[in-house]
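Problem: given the chain below (450 residues), write out its structure.
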Amino acid sequence: MGKSRILVFSILIVLACGTCVAANDDNVKRQKLGWSRNAATEAEAVAAVSCSGHGNAYLDGLVEDGKPVCECHLCYGGPDCSQLLHDCSADAGSGDPLFLEPFWMKRARSSAIVISGWHRMSYNFPDNSYISKRLENRIRRLHSIAKNAVTEGKYLIFGAGSSQLLTAAVFALSINNNSSSPVRIAAQPPFYPVYKTQTDYFETSRFRFDGTLLQENSSNTNGARVIEFVCSPNNPDGNLRTNVLQGPSVSTIHDYAYYWPHFTPIPAPADDDLMIFTLSKLTGHAGSRLGWALVKDKTTYDNMVHYMEIASLGTSRETQLRALQLFNTVLRTNGTEIFDFAYNTMRRRWNLLNEIISPSKRFSLQKIPPRFCTYFEKVRGASPAYAWVKCEREEDRNCTKVFEEAKISGRGGRVYYDDESYIRLALIRGNDDFNLLLKRLSDLVSKEKI
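Solution.
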């Protein structure tokens, strides 16, 4: 009995000492929060500012009377963003992926970072590259989990969003053009307008955009050097696409910005020679301006790296650090949390939109058939980033005008080099914007019954 009491007493001492050590470790950690304490305190204080759920205060935002100012969502105003502006138009034009903001607000602890004043001041990483190897490893791992791209045997390069990489790819693929004629660049309508606007802006004697090339109803280029842009799923209509043009003189730039499980079923991992992705449509952080390309050919990769060296000497180290933390958060659950949240949100929005427009004879939505998704391991329905709406009546051929009169701003079909009877409505904006869009659409469709 005496030995038992001694044993129990000894165990209690060990447990107590362990608790003391753990508490002491926590105290040491708190004491070590020296230079970062003020930054963390300021960040917490700004995040705690109440903007009525219709706006946010930011560390780099305006300050009045020593206090951070709320930046209100569109159609809201007042010091705390509590005032609804009733005559406001619904903004469905911009592709700002703010629908993911609630996801990150619930993961404030795991996604936060503190950056020292001397963080990565050099132009290069120690290996003389411009990319974080840890971030590269996280990206490759997430592609493997999402089953949306083969990364083995591919070089990886970063850019300031996908936009910079699209231009870098055009320069890289046209640099060895030995023909006296420039490389012709094309995309099948409707297509993302940046393909043409950037090509036109940076046009040289080596390449030019040819809007007629894919109107010739032929996949044969007769030996002429051609670069085709292919966006899959396509912006604006959300359908999966493959290249139209074929042949040894054809190069393809595959834009997979939306090829993630929340925007489309993933039928198989993409395994193309040049594939471009962007952080903005994966995590929602459009303002961080990070994109990456997976490139099979070493010469093309080297040419893209050379372009980046001339254009910007790589991508911001602060951006890469933030992206690393975001990827770490996503990978803690092997992508399950973000893909489930994002897919459920987009699927619900698509269903709500269909409920409003499907009874209409004046408007119609694009058709996106259900497909088997290798990530979710089941057949699943559509969850596109955008609605591609057609105005069916002849008197409504200027669809943009019809929607503007209904206080809905979108992007007309002409922007995407298609017919003006179409309009693109963004479904990826914040909840306030989407809810107002539903209200304005419901009011517009209900007029058919009057």
